[in-house]
Amino acid sequence: MTLVTIVLLACVTFTTRYLFLEGRLPVRLSSNFKQFLSFSGPAVLSAIFVPILLVHDHQLDLSLQNPYLWGGAMAVAAGYRTGSVYWTVGLGTLVFVLVGYVF
Questions:
Q1: Among 54, 65, 61, which residue's Cα sits nearest to residue 99?
Q2: Could you write out the DSSP letters of every residue in the chain?
Q3: Is residue 45 exposed (0-12), middle (13-18) or buried (19+ Cβ within 10 Å)?
Q4: Out of 16-25, 46-55, 86-95, which region has the weakest mean confidence (pLDDT)?
Q5: Each residue of 9-43: b (16+ CB within 10 Å) or e?
Q6: Is the Cα dihedral 20, 25, 29, 35 positive or negative?
Q7: Which of 17, 37, 12 has the alpha carbon at shortest distance from 27?
Q8: Which residues are registered as beta bridge partners of 55?
Q9: Which residues are CB-contacts of 91 (< 8 A; sequence separation ≥ 6)?
Q10: Which of 10, 29, 73, 96 is deepest in the core (most CB within 10 A)?
Q11: What is the pLDDT of residues 43-74, one digit of tens each?
């Protein structure tokens, strides 16, 4: 059952990407639909990282000893301040490791 699900999801993903990325096909999106799709990246990213940062052992963890929370906060601050992916990842990881080591 799991294999069938994975294969079906792969087919859906390939089909949708092929339809919209292949330039020779006559499929075009309206500007309203393109604007709607511009929100999908941040929505998916938020759905991925929020549980990683805030949930541990099936409980909400907002304590000051949570290294994921500190690393995430530093990554957001570094990304806002510098705009560099390298500084964002580097400072977020550094703070994560330091807080994880200290606490």
A1: 65
A2: -HHHHHHHHHHHHHHHHHHHH-TTS-----HHHHHHHTTHHHHHHHHHHHHHHHEETTEE---TT-HHHHHHHHHHHHHHHH--HHHHHHHHHHHHHHHHHH-
A3: exposed
A4: 16-25
A5: eeeeeeeeeeeeeeeeeeeeeeeeeeeeeeeeeee
A6: positive
A7: 17
A8: 60
A9: 74, 75, 77, 78
A10: 96
A11: 998 999 999 999 999 999 999 899 999 999 99
Tokens of 100: 């994880």
Q: Which two tokens stand for residue 53?
A: 């940062």
**Residue 21, token pair as written in the block:** 């990325």
Calpha distance 98→76 (Å, rounded): 17
